[in-house]
């Protein structure tokens, strides 16, 4: 049967229209993300008719949260900021490593942003455990709460750049390589 005469339900009706995007609102009863879709990405922030009027009140965090972030990401950042600090959280460095094409990366380069208390030791761990040679791009001594700082960075960057092909570490989440 020739299905080419039947348009796909996933393709836009006109060339300039974007495919539907999931609503970034949250249900009040379960506090989970709304499953409705919005007509296109031209409707910013991407919310269905029920959640269109909602906005995130950043309160005391307004100066720290970029106003161009989506409702969903702002909500995630605020949720993280208002959590009590864990007893296990401690001081440390935030680092940025890069793997270049040829270092086990097939196309382009990959970046890893994480936390550690000893940057030299962490670089050595990457080399010995994973067989990779990461290039240290930058490191920053953070607040006394390095775990929280890392989490906030990952939340914001996940919207801006996505997460790529890596899950739990570089190159498929090898154990000990995250």
Search tags:
single chain, about 180 residues, alpha+beta, three-stranded antiparallel β-sheet, two-stranded antiparallel sheet, disordered N terminus, disordered C terminus, Bacteriophage T5 Orf172 DNA-binding domain-containing protein, Phage_T5_Orf172_DNA-bd, Meiosis_regulatory
Quick rundown:
With 178 residues, the chain is an alpha+beta fold. It is built from three helices and five strands; from the N terminus they run E-E-H-E-E-H-E-H.
- The global form is globular
Radius of gyration, CA atoms, in whole angstroms: 20 Å
Structural class: alpha+beta
User: Share of helix among residues?
Assistant: 10-25%
End-to-end distance: 48 Å
Mean pLDDT: 73
State the helix count.
3
Q: How many strands in all?
A: 5
Task: Output the strand order for the largest sheet.
Answer: 4-3-5
Strand content: 5-15%
**Biggest sheet character:** 3 strands, antiparallel
Which regions contain 5 or more consecutive residues with pLDDT less than 50? 1-16, 165-176
| SSE sequence, one letter per element | EEHEEHEH
Organism: Spizellomyces punctatus (strain DAOM BR117)
Biased composition (Polar residues): 1-26
Domain Bacteriophage T5 Orf172 DNA-binding: 92-159
Pfam family, one: T5orf172
Describe the structure.
The chain is of the alpha+beta class. The protein has a domain at 20-52. 22% of the residues lie in helices and 14% in strands. The chain is built from three helices and five strands. The chain has helices spanning 71-82, 119-130, 146-161, and strands spanning 21-22, 37-38, 93-99, 110-116, 135-141. The strands form two sheets. It has a three-stranded antiparallel sheet, with helices on both faces. A two-stranded antiparallel ribbon has the order 1-2. Helix 1 runs antiparallel to helix 3 (146-161). It is globular. The N and C termini lie far apart (48 Å). Residues 1-41 are annotated as: Disordered. This is Bacteriophage T5 Orf172 DNA-binding domain-containing protein. Residues 1-26 have a biased composition (Polar residues).
């Amino acid at each position: 049967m020739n299905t080419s005469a039947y348009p796909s339900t996933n393709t836009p009706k006109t060339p300039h229209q974007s495919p539907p995007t999931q609503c970034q609102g949250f249900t009040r009863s379960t506090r989970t993300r709304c499953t409705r879709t919005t007509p296109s990405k031209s409707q910013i922030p991407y919310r269905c008719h029920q959640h269109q009027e909602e906005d995130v009140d950043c309160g005391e965090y307004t100066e720290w949260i970029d106003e161009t972030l989506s409702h969903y990401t702002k909500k995630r950042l605020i949720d993280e900021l208002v959590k009590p600090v864990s007893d296990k959280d401690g001081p440390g460095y935030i680092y940025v490593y890069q793997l270049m094409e040829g270092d086990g990366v097939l196309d382009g380069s990959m970046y890893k942003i994480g936390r550690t208390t000893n940057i030299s030791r962490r670089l050595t761990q990457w080399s010995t455990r994973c067989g990779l040679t990461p290039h240290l791009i930058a490191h920053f001594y953070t607040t006394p709460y390095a775990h929280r700082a890392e989490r906030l960075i990952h939340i914001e960057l996940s919207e801006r750049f996505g997460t790529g092909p890596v899950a739990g570490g570089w190159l498929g989440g090898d154990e000990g390589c995250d």
